[in-house]
Fold each of these.
Amino acid sequence: MPLNEQRILFAHKYVENGFNATQAAKDAGYSPKTAFMIASRLLDDAETWAFIRGLTEDLLRSSHLEATDVIRLISNRATMDVADLYEKDGSLKLMNDIPEDIRRSIQSMEVVELFEGSGDQKHAIGILRKVKLTDKDKNTEMLAKYFGILKDKVEHSGSVTVIASKHDEAL
């Protein structure tokens, strides 16, 4: 299939939105009702896929990263072991003691001091530490899509009956 403006827009939207093909098809102006099927067809098209690869390579070059750097980062996030955040006694490690690849997987941290009592009777009883990590499933999905293991694709089975009338023939 030759690349037209709509296919090029699909490719740009696909890369911009983190490789959600159905949403990219909708954003490129395809019908929401058929976006999933169109997206699947576009991703199976060699010219469209080559254009998408080119876009991702351009994006990596402009950010001074190599594809291997991004794949390594995503791979580390997909395979991280949450146990690396904790000491053997179950307490959270100090930030400097957490391995760098695990630190890069931390999306946010929150520290809350816990108190009991009120007024003059108020005293600290502990500290609550919350760590939010990146989504392992999303990172695994991105790896699978990159390596072609996973594609947005729909298969249909069954039969379709088409009934034409004389009115249809006049059109």
Note: The mean pLDDT is 83.
Amino acid sequence: MGALACYCPSSPACCAAAFSYQDARALADDRQNGPDDLADRIARAKAVQDREDEKLPGTGKGYKQGSRVLAELIGAPIGGVVIGWGLDRWFGTSPWGLLILLVLSVVVAFRNIFKIAKERPE
């Protein structure tokens, strides 16, 4: 058994992350309150989450578009380099596969960025 493994056939409480009987009682109490109480708790939690989301800066569409542009600028070239390097290793064509896929991935990244730029941030 590894250091993280926990096997206790006699007692589940021997593990630090074991499910306790007190947790089971709390769950049972929640079920006894009925579905109306659960619906109220869910509505309150959603209201709190909405209020917290309004306080966060940069959650608009413009922020999302910027994140997409950044992901394209970073992800596409890295993906092209990794795939090109792998193909070069497999076929023994170094460095041509890496260079060709790097150039193609940069072209595709900029094409996608132009598509993103055409969308309106509202």
Note: The mean pLDDT is 79.
